[in-house]
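retry 2 of 3: previous attempt timed out while embedding nickel (II) ion. Reduced batch size to 1 and resubmitted. Inputs unchanged:
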Amino acid sequence: MRRWRGLRRLNSVVEIITVDSPKAGVLRRKARAVGRITPQIQQLIDAMIEVMHEANGVGLAAPQVGASKRVIVAEVSERLHVLIDPKILKREGEEIGTEGCLSIPGIIADVPRAARVKVKAKNRKGKGITLDADGLLARVLQHEVDHLDGVLFLDRVVDKSTIREVAASAEVEAAVPTA
Ligand code: NI
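retry 2 succeeded.
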């Protein structure tokens, strides 16, 4: 069973903050750069990966678990990405696709995004990396970097008639990337 009100209850110690939570303000704040990667940041990353897996998400940003830090995780095509202080260097093309957000349960909509992005970040060892992404990974990375700037996917919807309610189900989660 899933409960959708306030905080989304999960088995892990960390909870996903949703837009109707008392702590929702964190979702609208610009998150702070991490800089030095401390053991606390490693713990945060581990917790985020766990929560993303439990929620069947394809991505998660630290503000969604209440940490106003520039950390995102994404898992697409069974490949896990941990990006610290990510920056989108280049955006190319445009694609419209359906998205959902773990912080806005039960709502999906069509969102235009760049088709391809080049992202610079640090990995969890502090090593500088660049990532060229297209397709779903490009979409997820843009969705997550937006979270770090206090932007939610509904802010990016152009055709408001595509905003629709869906029942939480494994089918929806499989069909619509939720991040
Ligand atoms: Ni989201």
